[in-house]
Amino acid sequence: MSSNPKIWLTREKEEYSELSTPIYDSVNAPTWSKEYDKLSVIYNDYYAPTWPEGPNLEGLISFLTKFSGGTNICEVGVGTGNVIGLLYNLGYKNFTGVDISPKMMKIAKQKIPGLITIEQDLREANYSEFDWVIAVGSLYNRISLKDKKELFLKMYNEMAEGALFFVSLRIYKYNYDFENDKIISGEEIQHNRFVLNYTHEWISYDSYYGVGHYLDLKTNQSFEYAYKTHVISGQNLINLVCDAGFKHIATGAPEDTGYYANTWVFQK
Ligand SMILES: C[S@@+](CC[C@H](N)C(=O)[O-])C[C@H]1O[C@@H](n2cnc3c(N)ncnc32)[C@H](O)[C@@H]1O
Asked: What whole-number distance in Å separates Cα of residue 11 and Cα of residue 30?
């Protein structure tokens, strides 16, 4: 299998079935949750909605709230509750968070009284009760193409008629520089508080392994966070979700939502 990321850059029009890469399995799930537990230490500050240089979650929320429903909301990969915390502040009720990291969800529970938390892999969760299912930044991490296909079919089979599925993912090609077979290392300094050094290496042409080295300048604490990511283009994601049976009803581009990522809306 080729591992040249430049090939991926031209893959927008290709069939996603060609992009399969069997590199993940659920055997490694306990290790992944430990990685997110480590990240939770700074995640809430690093990506907090009030953060001037962070993603503009208010823009994302104003996009989401244009849609009807939201009477029973599930966020998969809920993390520290930054997204549904804002919906809660607007008066939305009945929230369930699914996440593999108990430490992330512990912070989410402090923001959203009554939040039901389910410590589970999102591939195994049950989606039958919700009229909104939201996935922000949680569907690429470690979820292979094969698992994505199975997940979307499972969600479609379980979700109620008319229920909405919101997916927000980065558009990777705008976020990284490419150099031969590797994504070159980068350094980001955020709000004079965190220094993030990251290195990424492609392990197949649509998946990479990355390590983020975080330094908190305020506490002088540092740690590393490792992850694998299956990269999927926006069009291929739409095809995949629609092949499972959903209708694609809207797209919120970053310029519409003010958020750093595209948000696609699907309906059963
Ligand atoms: C980048 S964070 C996003 C958190 C939150 N959605 C937000 O936007 O602030 C990704 C979250 O997804 C969770 N996650 C990753 N893979 C998962 C999986 N397979 N099942 C459940 N949760 C997962 C991680 O533990 C982490 O909390």
From this structure: 33
Tell me the whole-structure pTM to 2 decimals: 0.84
Ligand 1, atom nearest to 104 Cα: 27
The verdict on 106 and 194 lying in the same domain is no
Is any atom of ligand 1 closer than 6 Å to the C-beta of 55?
no
Query: Tokens 């927000």 label which residue?
Result: 168
Distance CA 265, CA 81 (A): 20
Question: Structure tokens of 56?
Answer: 């503009």
Separation between Cα atoms, residue 171 and residue 225, nearest integer Å: 21
Number of domains into which the chain is organized:
2
Maximum pairwise Cα distance, the chain: 50
123 in the same domain as 46:
yes
CA-based R_g, the chain, Å: 18
Q: What is the mean pLDDT of residues 253-264?
A: 82
Helix (H, G, I), strand (E, B) or coil at 28: helix
